[in-house]
Amino acid sequence: MRFLKCMISSLFVFMFFSACGTAKEPMPLFQEIPSQDGEEARYVLLTHSETTESTTHQLACLFQQELEEISAGRFRVSIYPNNTLGNLEDGVHAFSSGAVEFRMGSGPSDLLQMVKWSPVLSDISIEEVNDMFQEKGDFWEAVQNECQLEQSQLLTIFPAEYRVLTSNRSVESCADLNGLRLRVPELGYDRQFWSGLGASPYTAPIEAVYFELQQGQYEGQENTLSSIYSNRFYEYQDYLIETNHKIYFDSLYVSLPFYQNLGDEERVWIDTASQRVYRHACGLSETQQTQYWEDMKYEGIRQLEFPLEEQLVMREISVEGLTNSLKENYGAEKVAFLLSCLSQAGGN
Questions:
Q1: Are 81 and 223 within one domain?
Q2: Cα separation, 162 vs 120, whole angstroms
Q3: Mean pLDDT for back-to-back runs of 10 residues, the chain (348 residues)
Q4: 192 & 285 share domain
């Protein structure tokens, strides 16, 4: 059954790539090519860290399609998934050097890194967080300022989704986490968070997780539903537990020097394309989440609810240590600003 599903998925990826323009004749990087109206076209690069089966890649392909269509071919977009042109930090340096024009990821902003912990820091809902992203108020302005310091211009923030836990052990309470061998991201507070809950966390790059789950090096891992699905982590896991302990979202940002050197009309094309992709993402998110659940259930993974009272216990155990860690890494003033934004967005 899994073999058949892999064959179907491979066919889907081939068809999707064809729609994204990857079947076009190969062109040298940075070559100027004629557009549909005879004007010189610019060949630009967009990078991201996810697989070609991911929601992120679908959105990247849609941005490619929209920008090329709006600009009548004045922009031609080449997409590099799986961090093939470097990770987030490399992407920032590539922006300042002019080597890469666009990136989809969490964004080069301290506030965007901290707000991922909103389920622990506040009782704000994920819908309210998404509304805060789009209000273009104090939070957006502060994030934009941080991005510009890193030579980036934030174009949009896509809808957030919860991170959840997968495991070969049934986990229905915080007590069940005791001793759980768990893969967590390499950067940030994640290792301390899970250690504080009694788990035994190990850090590893996402590219290594599938193989290490296959080899039984961990009992579980935590990620977004879309990442669990696109990376096929569920193939070596028995349970998917809705811990909803953290959120993740992609943002789309552009090299600031590149963006500033464009004409007004060209910037409008880019802004319009990014907003069209955002609107598509809003409709895509819920539909795909449902499909991911159904496909993984079909493959035999069992869905477990993590009761709200246990989520509150998790928050109570973690909030003080998380807050202190964020203050140490980002400064008390910035943490206070974030908490104020979350409070206002949550109506508190």
A1: no
A2: 12
A3: 44 44 40 55 92 91 97 96 71 74 91 96 95 94 95 95 96 97 90 95 91 94 93 95 96 95 97 96 83 91 95 96 95 97 87
A4: no
